[in-house]
Amino acid sequence: MNGVTDDWIEKHLQRLRKPDGDCLHCRRPANRYHSVGPITITISEPDEDEIFSHEFCCWECLAHWFARQAGGEFVILKS
Question: What CA–CA distance (Å, rounded) separates 52 from 12?
Fold first, then answer.
Protein backbone atom coordinates (compact mmCIF):
# COMPACT_ATOMS: atom_id res chain seq x y z
CA MET A 1 0.00 0.00 0.00
CA ASN A 2 1.33 3.44 -0.90
CA GLY A 3 -0.12 5.31 2.10
CA VAL A 4 -2.73 7.23 0.10
CA THR A 5 -6.13 7.16 1.75
CA ASP A 6 -9.51 8.46 0.64
CA ASP A 7 -9.25 11.17 3.30
CA TRP A 8 -5.85 12.28 1.95
CA ILE A 9 -7.22 12.41 -1.60
CA GLU A 10 -10.22 14.48 -0.52
CA LYS A 11 -8.03 16.92 1.41
CA HIS A 12 -5.69 17.24 -1.58
CA LEU A 13 -8.60 17.90 -3.97
CA GLN A 14 -10.00 20.48 -1.54
CA ARG A 15 -6.64 22.25 -1.57
CA LEU A 16 -6.85 22.44 -5.39
CA ARG A 17 -10.31 24.01 -5.25
CA LYS A 18 -9.50 26.49 -2.47
CA PRO A 19 -5.90 27.09 -1.37
CA ASP A 20 -5.30 26.64 2.37
CA GLY A 21 -2.29 28.96 2.69
CA ASP A 22 0.27 26.17 2.34
CA CYS A 23 2.62 25.60 -0.59
CA LEU A 24 1.24 22.89 -2.88
CA HIS A 25 4.72 21.39 -3.30
CA CYS A 26 6.41 21.51 0.14
CA ARG A 27 3.29 22.10 2.30
CA ARG A 28 4.98 24.82 4.33
CA PRO A 29 3.31 28.25 4.65
CA ALA A 30 3.01 29.80 1.19
CA ASN A 31 3.93 33.24 2.55
CA ARG A 32 7.13 32.14 4.32
CA TYR A 33 9.20 34.17 1.82
CA HIS A 34 7.04 37.25 2.13
CA SER A 35 8.85 39.35 -0.45
CA VAL A 36 8.50 36.54 -3.02
CA GLY A 37 5.42 34.55 -2.09
CA PRO A 38 2.87 33.42 -2.06
CA ILE A 39 2.94 32.79 -5.78
CA THR A 40 -0.59 31.94 -6.91
CA ILE A 41 -1.34 30.08 -10.14
CA THR A 42 -4.94 30.01 -11.39
CA ILE A 43 -5.99 27.36 -13.90
CA SER A 44 -9.24 27.23 -15.85
CA GLU A 45 -10.38 25.66 -19.08
CA PRO A 46 -12.56 27.47 -21.63
CA ASP A 47 -15.30 24.81 -21.57
CA GLU A 48 -15.27 24.28 -17.79
CA ASP A 49 -16.70 26.44 -15.03
CA GLU A 50 -14.34 25.10 -12.37
CA ILE A 51 -11.26 27.15 -11.50
CA PHE A 52 -8.27 25.71 -9.65
CA SER A 53 -5.79 27.83 -7.70
CA HIS A 54 -2.41 26.66 -6.46
CA GLU A 55 -0.17 28.53 -4.02
CA PHE A 56 3.59 28.16 -3.86
CA CYS A 57 6.10 29.66 -1.41
CA CYS A 58 8.94 30.23 -3.91
CA TRP A 59 9.98 29.85 -7.53
CA GLU A 60 11.79 26.60 -6.81
CA CYS A 61 8.60 24.89 -5.55
CA LEU A 62 6.73 26.27 -8.55
CA ALA A 63 9.43 24.91 -10.89
CA HIS A 64 9.07 21.45 -9.31
CA TRP A 65 5.31 21.57 -9.95
CA PHE A 66 5.74 22.81 -13.57
CA ALA A 67 8.24 20.03 -14.30
CA ARG A 68 5.96 17.36 -12.84
CA GLN A 69 3.01 18.64 -14.89
CA ALA A 70 5.17 18.36 -18.01
CA GLY A 71 6.12 14.77 -17.17
CA GLY A 72 9.63 15.55 -16.04
CA GLU A 73 11.57 16.39 -12.93
CA PHE A 74 13.11 19.69 -11.87
CA VAL A 75 16.87 19.37 -11.28
CA ILE A 76 19.01 21.98 -9.56
CA LEU A 77 22.59 22.04 -10.85
CA LYS A 78 25.14 23.01 -8.24
CA SER A 79 28.28 24.76 -9.42
Answer: 12
